[in-house]
Specification:
Layout lengths: L1 H8 L2 H16 L5 H10 L6 H18 L5 H19 L9 H17 L3 H16 L9 H8 L5 H13 L3 H10 L6 H11 L9 H5 L1 H4 L4 H10 L1 H8 L17 H13 L6 H31 L1 H4 L2
Helix pairs in contact: 1-3, 2-3, 2-4, 4-6, 5-6, 7-8, 8-10, 9-10, 16-17
Length: 316
């Protein structure tokens, strides 16, 4: 009810501030995250770009760090319920007169529905768009082309992986090359993720480009542990390949984890292999890791309870 009143009575900037304030309170442990979820759910009819993007960013954090495997289906159902009506309204295809904000909102909700909601219809459509992009990148809406290539990889098999690798080798522009390279992080099957890691260390990939594929696998919760193990076992090759092109070191990798066990492992590793960028990046990374663990411990159970309570509504 509060959210519906807010949407009617507040300006877009005030609604964004309300969302930010509620998230900050949940972040600090002063409010249960259920209050943010209810607020966001009440604003699902709000097409304001800043509102949609704010909610989508929080959805990404929750999906990556707070949602337990047992609650994943319920969370994905909620994401679909949150964003699908908006996509149905604004549509997939750009219309004459669409503002930049509308184009941005369309891409944001397609990403949320595909990646965090695993919406079957969205994944089917992006697969078609990815095939079209592969034949003629210019024939696809520039706001959706690269996004479609990335999302299509979520359900991609070895055949699609080979197609992406081929497109990389034949890319006519840097944008096309990087579109396919960055999409490799979304292939989560262990054998395909392993291929990406090995490819990034191959002579065909430049040192400065290695981060697009290699460290993209750290961002993917399904491949993070595999990438970390590979990083540790291939450290000499990685260090040699990056050389002087890396000025900030690797300590920031700590911020991509969210468990006490991972923290101990990261600390032990960098104690034995001091970060070339100095202690600052590691210290900041560990601080973000600690914050994530605190939020997960305090808000994870609350989120699970809220999802169970709203499972029926989310699946409608």
């Amino acid at each position: 009810m509060v959210a519906e009143v807010a949407e009617q009575a507040l300006t877009p900037q005030e609604r964004v501030s309300l969302l930010n304030d509620e998230w900050a309170l949940a972040h600090a442990g002063q409010h249960p995250i259920a209050q943010y979820m209810s607020l966001a759910q009440g604003m699902r009819g709000d097409h304001t770009r800043q509102v949609v993007q704010q909610i989508a960013e929080r959805v990404e954090f929750m999906s990556n760090f707070l949602v337990e495997p047992a609650d994943q289906n319920a969370f994905r159902a909620w994401v679909r319920n949150q964003f699908r009506p908006m996509l149905n309204e604004i549509g997939w295809n750009a219309k004459p007169g669409d503002s930049d904000d509308v184009k941005s909102v369309r891409a944001t909700i397609i990403h949320a529905l595909g990646y965090h909601g695993r919406d079957p219809e969205v994944l089917r459509r992006v697969s078609e768009l990815a095939q079209q992009y592969g034949k003629d990148p210019a024939s696809v809406d520039p706001n959706l082309g690269g996004l479609a290539v990335e999302l299509a990889a979520l359900n991609g098999d070895a055949k699609l992986y080979d197609e992406y690798a081929h497109h990389m080798s034949q890319a006519k522009t840097p944008q096309e090359l990087y579109t396919y390279m960055e999409a490799l992080k979304h292939f989560s099957q262990p054998e395909l993720a392993q291929r990406t890691l090995e490819m990034m260390l191959s002579p065909e990939i430049k040192g400065q480009d290695m981060f697009r594929g290699f460290f993209g696998l750290f961002d993917n919760p399904e491949t993070r542990d595999l990438a970390w193990t590979y990083y540790k076992t291939h450290w000499p090759e990685i260090q040699k390949k990056v050389g002087a092109s890396l000025g900030f070191g690797f300590g920031g990798l700590a911020s991509l984890f969210c468990s006490e066990q991972a923290k101990q492992d990261v600390q032990q590793w960098f104690a034995q292999h001091p970060d070339s960028g100095g202690p600052r990046a590691l210290r900041q990374g560990l601080e973000r890791l600690d914050t994530c663990v605190r939020i997960r411990n305090t808000q994870g159970p609350n989120l699970a309870s809220w999802l169970k309570e709203h499972a029926g509504a989310a699946s409608q």
